[in-house]
Write a structure and sequence with these properties.
The chain is of the alpha+beta class. It contains 28 helices and 28 strands.
Length: 853
C-alpha cells in the first residue's frame, strides 16, 4: 500500500487551503461486460472539481488511484499526466482563487470490495457493480479530495451496458442518449457517494408522514438484490423495518430525512455489514436468507437497517472533521440501532442481544494492547481502517447508553436535535457535541468525556457484601478496578431462589465512583442468592460475583427468569473464563447444564460460540478431545428434545454440526444429508446441508467429488463460496499447500473467496497439519501488507496468524518478528500485536484449566 496513505496533518493542511464547491463525475461502465483480454479491466472516469483557494499557498494534490491518467486540466491549462500523477496523487501547482480541475482517467474494477467492485454471478453469468469507499476508496473511482471535512455536492452521470439500471445517491433517470443522470446531492463527504449498477431485481414502496408543521413528507423507497436471490428476497419485511425506523427517528430527531429517496441494495462479496451512503445504502447480501433462519437473524438484519438509517443524521448530515471522531457517527448509530429496535419494532428484547453480543466485542477489543480511547488518535488512513472496531462501535454505544442514564433520556435526545440543526451539512469535533449536551443536561460533560471518551480500558465492578446475624445486609459496596476509575450510573439487583426460580426482589441505582462505593439503599434487605452488579446493563463494565453468587450461578443460572439478567450472567461467566479466573471446563459444564433452557435465541447462539471457543482455545490441550465430545453429546441431546420445527431445533442442529467429532456423529450427519436419518421437524434445507457437510469435509469424510456434488445442487455464488471453503478444509498436506498458495502467492481470488479459503484452511482439528505454516506466515506478512489492498492485507494477517499453534514457541516467534520489524507499518504491527495478545490470553486460560484438571 505504498503511496496510498494520507496523514491527518496532510488532510488538515489541505482543508486549511481550499474548499470544494462541487464534483461532476462522468463514468462509462460499458466495459464491465463482454470479453476482455486486459489483465486489469478498466472503465473511463472523468471528473470535474470546482474548488476555491481559501488559505495561503498555491500547491496541493488531488487523490486518485488508477492504472492510468489520460488527461489533467487545471483552469484550462493542460498538465502532463506522467509528470503530475504518481499512482495515487495528482500534484497541482499554481492554484488560482477559483479553480476548475478536470481529470480523465482509466480506473480499475475491483475484486477486493474496495472502489468499484465487479462481480460475475456464476449462476447466470450476469455482472453486478457497486461501490464501497469508507474510509478513502472513492479515489479508486474518481478524482477526489479524499477526506471527510471537504464536503461538496456531487453530480453523477453514468453510461452503462444496455439493459442495466443504475442508481446513485440522488434520484436518476436515463436520457435519450442512454446516459443515466442523477440529481445533485446535498453537500456530502466523498466516502459516502455511491454508484450501484447492473441487472438487479428492484422492488419499490413509499414512506409518508405528516410533519409537525403540517407539511407532507414522502420518501420513495427501493430495495434490490441479484436476480438469483430474488426468490428469497423478503422485501416486505425490509420495508416494514425501514418505515418503523423512519417513524422513530422523525419522532425523536425533529429533523426530516434530508436526502430525498431511500434505496437499499443487498450486494455480493461485501466486506462490511452495510454502508450508510445517503439515499443508497448498501448491505451484504447474506442478509437475504436462502433457508430457514432464527428470529435472531432477522433481528440482526433489522438492527443493521436501523443502524444505517441513524447514520443519515449521525454521519451523513453531520460528519466528523477527521477519523479521530469516528465515534461521532459509529457509536451513535450502534446505540440508535438497538434503541430504535427495542422501541419501534417487534424486536423488543434488543437490549438483551446488545448486552450479550455487541458488548462482548467491545470487552475483547478494550483489553487488547491496541485498545484506544473512543475518541482515538488517528494519524492516517491505515489507522482509520483498523479503528472500525469493537471500541468505536460497541463500547461507544455502551457509553452512550451510560450517558442516557447519566444525563437523562430527554436531555440526550434534545441534545441530538440541537446538534442536527446547529451543524447540518457541516463537520464537527467532540467539543461541538459536548457543548450542546451541557446545555440540555446541566451536567459537566467535559469531566464525563474525559473519563469515558478520552481514556481506554474496561472497569471491573465487584460486589462486597456483609450480613448481620439474622442474614440481613449490613453493607453492600461495589468495588471498582481499572486504570481509570470512572463514574458509573449503575443498578445493583438482589435475586432470590424461590420455587425453582431466581427472581429479583430488590434493586437500587447508584453513582459508582472511585474504588469503593456503598449502595446505601440496599442495607437491611434479606440475604440474596445472587447479587448482580450492573443489573439492567446501564453501564459499560465487566461484572464479577461474590463467592455465594458464583455458586448460585453454577447451580441455577438457568433459573433466572429475566432474559436480560440471564444474558448478563452468561457474559460475566465468559469474561471470567477469558480472564483465566474460571476454568474452561467449568464454563463448558455450565453450558451443558443450562444452554438448553435458554429462551433467547440470540443469547443461545452466542453461548454456543463461547462454548466452542472455550474448548478450542482455552481448555488444556489434554482435555480438548473430552471437551469437544461433551459439547457434541450435549448438542445432540438438546437437538433431539427440541420442539420439532422450532428455531431452537435449528440452532442446536447447527451447533451439533459445528462440534461433531465421533464416528457416530459423522454417520448421523451423513444420514441427514442422504435422507437415511430423520429428526422430526428438522428441515434440511440447502444452507443447513452445507453446515452438515462442513465437518465431514474437515475430517476427511467428504472428498472433492462429494463437495462438487453439493455445488451441483447449489450452483450459485453462495454455493461457490461454501465449496471453496470446504475444499480448503480437507485434511491433506497438498490441499493446505494449494490453499496457502492461492491466498498468499496469488491475488486472483476475490475478497469473498479469500475469506472462504482462509476459513477452510484454519481448522482446529488440523493443528499438526498446518503447523509448518507458522514460520511461513512470519516470513511473508510484511510483503503481503505492502503488495495487497488494506482490506485483503487485514484478512490475511488476521486470518492466517498461527493461533492454533498455541504454545510458548509460537508466542516467542511472534515476539521475534515484532522485535525485528519495529519499523513495519503501524497498522500491520497492530494486527500482529492483537493476535499475539489473543494467543497469550489462551495460554493463560489453558494453565488455569490445567490446574482445575
Amino acid at each position: 500500500m505504498p503511496g496510498e496513505n494520507l496523514s491527518r496533518d496532510e488532510a488538515h493542511e489541505r482543508a486549511a487551503l481550499l474548499s470544494v464547491d462541487g464534483y461532476e463525475v462522468v463514468l462509462d461502465l460499458r466495459s464491465a461486460v463482454g470479453d476482455s483480454a486486459d489483465a486489469v479491466r478498466t472503465f473511463r472516469s472523468e471528473t470535474t472539481i470546482r474548488f476555491r483557494r481559501t488559505g495561503e499557498g498555491t500547491s496541493t494534490f488531488v487523490d486518485l488511484i488508477a492504472p492510468a491518467v489520460t488527461a489533467v486540466t487545471l483552469n484550462g491549462r493542460s498538465l502532463d499526466p506522467e509528470a503530475v500523477f504518481d499512482g495515487s496523487r495528482i500534484a497541482l501547482d499554481g492554484l488560482a482563487d477559483e479553480n476548475v480541475l478536470v481529470v480523465d482517467a482509466q480506473c480499475a474494477y475491483s475484486r477486493t470490495g474496495e472502489g468499484m467492485h465487479r462481480f460475475v454471478d456464476p449462476e447466470d453469468g450476469e455482472v453486478y457493480l457497486y461501490t464501497q469507499y469508507e474510509p478513502a476508496d472513492a479515489r479508486r473511482v474518481y478524482a477526489t479530495f479524499e477526506q471527510p471535512d471537504l464536503k461538496a455536492p456531487h453530480l453523477f452521470a453514468v453510461t452503462a451496458p444496455e439493459g442495466w439500471t443504475v442508481w446513485s445517491n440522488g434520484a436518476g433517470e436515463q436520457d435519450a442518449e442512454g446516459v443515466w443522470r442523477f440529481a445533485e446531492t446535498a453537500p456530502i463527504s466523498t466516502y459516502i457517494s455511491c454508484v450501484v449498477a447492473g441487472p438487479y431485481h428492484y422492488v419499490t414502496d413509499r414512506y409518508t408522514r405528516t410533519l409537525a408543521d403540517g407539511t407532507e413528507l414522502e420518501i420513495p423507497l427501493g430495495a434490490m438484490c441479484r436476480k438469483g436471490l430474488a426468490r428469497h428476497f423478503d422485501a416486505d419485511d425490509v420495508f416494514l423495518v425501514t418505515k418503523q425506523g423512519f417513524d422513530f427517528f422523525h419522532d425523536n430527531f425533529d429533523y426530516p430525512y434530508p436526502f430525498g429517496k431511500y434505496d437499499q441494495a443487498f450486494v455480493p462479496e461485501y466486506n462490511l455489514g452495510a454502508m450508510e451512503n445517503p439515499g443508497m445504502v448498501t448491505f451484504r447480501e447474506e442478509y437475504i436468507y436462502r433457508g430457514k433462519v432464527t428470529q435472531a437473524a432477522y433481528e440482526r438484519r433489522a438492527n443493521v437497517i436501523l443502524h444505517e438509517m441513524a447514520h443519515m443524521w449521525f454521519g451523513d448530515l453531520v460528519t466528523m472533521v477527521w477519523w479521530d471522531d469516528l465515534w461521532l457517527k459509529e457509536s451513535f448509530a450502534d446505540f440508535m440501532g438497538s434503541f430504535s429496535l427495542a422501541e419501534a419494532t417487534r424486536f423488543t428484547n434488543s437490549w438483551v442481544t446488545f448486552a450479550n453480543n455487541r458488548k462482548a466485542w467491545a470487552y475483547r477489543a478494550d483489553q487488547l494492547p491496541s485498545t484506544h480511547p473512543i475518541t482515538a488518535d488517528i494519524r492516517d488512513l491505515e489507522d482509520a481502517k483498523l479503528n472500525f472496531d469493537g471500541i468505536t462501535y460497541a463500547k461507544g454505544a455502551s457509553v452512550l447508553k451510560q450517558l442516557v442514564a447519566y444525563a437523562g433520556r430527554d436531555a440526550f435526545l434534545e441534545g441530538a436535535r440541537r446538534y442536527f440543526k446547529r451543524h447540518a451539512y457541516g463537520n464537527t469535533r467532540l467539543t461541538d457535541l459536548l457543548t450542546i449536551l451541557e446545555e440540555t443536561s446541566g451536567r459537566d460533560m467535559k469531566a464525563w468525556a474525559k473519563s469515558w471518551l478520552q481514556t481506554s480500558g474496561v472497569n471491573t465492578l465487584t460486589p462486597a457484601v456483609s450480613y448481620d446475624a439474622e442474614g440481613r445486609i449490613t453493607e453492600l459496596a461495589v468495588l471498582q478496578e481499572g486504570d481509570e476509575q470512572r463514574p458509573h450510573r449503575a443498578a445493583v439487583g438482589l435475586y432470590r431462589l424461590t420455587d425453582g426460580q431466581l427472581t429479583r426482589y430488590a434493586r437500587a441505582e447508584a453513582d459508582i465512583t472511585g474504588a469503593r462505593t456503598v449502595v446505601a439503599d440496599l442495607a437491611g434487605e434479606a440475604k440474596p442468592d445472587l447479587v448482580l452488579v450492573n443489573d439492567d446493563d446501564l453501564t459499560y463494565c465487566k461484572v464479577r460475583f461474590d463467592e455465594d453468587s458464583l455458586a448460585t450461578l453454577r447451580a441455577h443460572l438457568g433459573d433466572i427468569t429475566d432474559p436480560l439478567a440471564r444474558a448478563l450472567c452468561w457474559s460475566a461467566l465468559w469474561n471470567l473464563t477469558r480472564d483465566a479466573l474460571m476454568p474452561a471446563r467449568d464454563f463448558v459444564s455450565v453450558v451443558l447444564a443450562f444452554a438448553g433452557r435458554e429462551t433467547d435465541i440470540g443469547v443461545l447462539q452466542m453461548v454456543h460460540a463461547w462454548g466452542k471457543s472455550a474448548v478450542t482455545h482455552y481448555a488444556a490441550p489434554a482435555w480438548r478431545e473430552e471437551g469437544g465430545r461433551l459439547l457434541a453429546e450435549g448438542a445432540l441431546r438438546e437437538l433431539r428434545v427440541a420442539e420439532p420445527g422450532s428455531e431452537h431445533q435449528l440452532t442446536w442442529a447447527r451447533f451439533f454440526a459445528a462440534t461433531a467429532s465421533s464416528e457416530a456423529d459423522f454417520q448421523l450427519l451423513e444420514g441427514l444429508l442422504d435422507g437415511a436419518a430423520k429428526i422430526d421437524g428438522l428441515d434440511v434445507d440447502q444452507e443447513l446441508r452445507w453446515s452438515l457437510l462442513s465437518p465431514l469435509a474437515a475430517h476427511g469424510r467428504a472428498d472433492e467429488a462429494r463437495i462438487g456434488e453439493e455445488l451441483t445442487r447449489d450452483d450459485t455464488a453462495t454455493g461457490k463460496r461454501h465449496q471453496v471453503r470446504l475444499l480448503a478444509s480437507r485434511p491433506s498436506a497438498a490441499v493446505k499447500a494449494q490453499a496457502w498458495a492461492q491466498v498468499v502467492e496469488s491475488d486472483t481470488l476475490s475478497n469473498a473467496l479469500v475469506e472462504a479459503t482462509i476459513a477452510g484452511f484454519v481448522q482446529p482439528s488440523q493443528r499438526e497439519l498446518i503447523a509448518p505454516y507458522a514460520e511461513k506466515y512470519f516470513a511473508v506478512i510484511e510483503r503481503l501488507w505492502a503488495e495487497r489492498s488494506i482490506q485483503i492485507g487485514m484478512d490475511v494477517v488476521r486470518g492466517l496468524f498461527p493461533g492454533l499453534q498455541d504454545d510458548e514457541a509460537t508466542l516467542a516467534a511472534t515476539d521475534t518478528w515484532l522485535s525485528a520489524h519495529e519499523s513495519a507499518a503501524p497498522a500491520l504491527r497492530r494486527l500482529v500485536l492483537e493476535s499475539r495478545d489473543d494467543l497469550a490470553r489462551a495460554l493463560r486460560a489453558q494453565d488455569c484449566d490445567r490446574l482445575a484438571g
